[in-house]
């Protein structure tokens, strides 16, 4: 369950830069009218089954072939190619360990020295293993497509990436925030990264978490994804200085969008630079799944798409009627007799269905714009 910030007013924030809110980068093929909001609580990002025997092997052996596949970025009204999600798969040098009692996975860029640190906070029921594909270094990694695309993009831009597991199912906003600060600092010192700019990115519960982390340590920028952030309140004093803040959200979640607008105005009023990116719903096409999930072939993607059409899971324009959590697509594939073939990709497919529905999911659709913005704030 996402953590909702207190309603108490926040103390003033200060920043030398003039406030500037920018709206850009919608990620759908069209602006469609908003549908009624689902229940007020935001859905959790779903838990993953790490014991699935075939998915890690399939990802590992098909990585080389998938790297050549083109993937399309939906931006405003046009689908355009961008770097293949498959290109992120040769992330074969992560390290898995424990830092300050927290399970962590990290990787440093191989081509050149790191220019900055990216700390990633996952959502509820998620884990660091989502952000790396299976490899000899991390055989238990899952490699969800949106998550891996972010990690791979960061490494190509020479960010050292650190993902840490929350103590519970979701992040807490008290002692765990100070603990993460200590983890980042000790890890940076051990890996020769002291003095580099630090950026934090979090989704859902992780978004609330990094919004609080930004109040506790010096960050070059913070990216809050599918969350409105938590500012002030009993869990931590509001800082005198707050970093440039990017909100990436899905406006179909109208309640969260309204809360985000409130917090955005509060930050700008106090001199904080704010940028907002909206990720809209995408039509499910015959090859969307194969384009975005390395190793899932186009023939299987088309078969899944046909089932969705036949079962009425999509409307006449191809848009999902419900997200992947609520749609009984697994039962439909069992009925058609090819669930066994699909099951290794179940979590990967569900993530992309959630992304297509455009209500609450990790997204890499704005990687280029997000990292361009981050790099402008590295000092």
UniProtKB/TrEMBL annotation:
Residues 15-34 have a biased composition (Polar residues). It comes from the Eukaryota. InterPro entries: AB_hydrolase_fold. It comes from Urochloa decumbens. Residues 1-45 are annotated as: Disordered. The lineage of its organism: Eukaryota, Viridiplantae, Streptophyta, Embryophyta, Tracheophyta. Residues 1-12 have a biased composition (Pro residues). The chain crosses the membrane at residues 54-74, 219-242. Signal peptide: none annotated. This is Uncharacterized protein. Keywords: Membrane, Transmembrane, Transmembrane helix.
